[in-house]
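Deviations from the work plan: none for this task. Representative record:
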Amino acid sequence: MPSRIAVAKELAEIFKVIAHPDRIRLIEELRNNEMDVGGLAKLLDIPQTRMSQHLAMLRAYRLVEERRDGRRHCYSLAHPELATWITSGIDVLEARPTSLNAEDIHEVRELWS
Amino acid sequence: MPSRIAVAKELAEIFKVIAHPDRIRLIEELRNNEMDVGGLAKLLDIPQTRMSQHLAMLRAYRLVEERRDGRRHCYSLAHPELATWITSGIDVLEARPTSLNAEDIHEVRELWS
DNA sequence: AACATGTATGCAAATATTCGCAGATGTTAT
DNA sequence: ATAACATCTGCGAATATTTGCATACATGTT
């Protein structure tokens, strides 16, 4: 298989893994801190079991790392540049007409940096 | 809705639009040239009707622009930085253990820049 | 040991995406 | 007008993703 096709396929997979609102937020929450599953679930206001599923997926693709502390499982980004790369996608998003208003984008850019 | 959630949702949508091997390759092919539907379809070796569907999606999200020239529809990137941003995702991809080998990644990085 | 706590996993239903095919639309040539 | 060409659209079947729920697992506490 020509390398272009292989790389495009792999990239598409990564994009798919990231392409979920919960997972994007979760990655951004991990930008600076490590956090346990329950904490993340509460932060995003989703059931713990769903958070676990998201984390399992990110773990499978080695985008996050797990550290056990007693009965808590603490997660952190395997490569913090990941969060940076995602936020830089906001620029692409901003360059298009969008349903979001400029203040929202600005506010989040502050929060996620 | 808190702005973080709105932005994450919007970002996830964009990620989803991009998260397809054909669409990633097609965007990279448009990096420097504008091209018509048939040309792109032949390049990626997929049926023209499928290429049309991909392009309709990218068009709906205003990631590409259409210019008509006689009976041909020529497409180009609405924001060429899009291609750059995608390729910079290769760095994330490279930082993880992957099924791809380093030469493939290197070769594509050359091709797509 | 029994129990509580924090996470993970398996499975099925709901939902969304992908893809091929058949037909519609618009353009140029004869 | 008819034909040929380039592309688009609608729709259904195959496939993949998301989600909730029930339950299993591991660790710490009593």
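Chain B has a mean pLDDT of 93.
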